[in-house]
Amino acid sequence: MSATSHWFLYMLRTPTGMLYTGITTDVVRRLGQHQTGKGAKSLRGKGELTLAFHCPAGDRSLASKLEIKVKKLSKVQKELLVRSAPQCLESYLDLTVSGK
Fold this sequence. Notes:
The chain is 39% helix and 22% strand. It is α+β, with helices and mostly antiparallel strands. The chain has a single domain, classed as GIY-YIG endonuclease.
């Protein structure tokens, strides 16, 4: 795998239970950025964030496509994804979501 293919999809949980989905090349660094208010505006002021889920997501292009699919999932489907912790997110989503 080349350096450009080390992307991860991650999900953060707010104290109210909201799940935020994003992609990054460094999950620990990105979580720290979110915690200090330097990440997504939607997470600022939401309190302590916890890493609910993360997994390899291929290259930048595939990671972006997977992120879009995960963001379209319902809250129940997202919670199932977190609990399932699939090894291959792409295969998991192909089974969970129609290919549209």
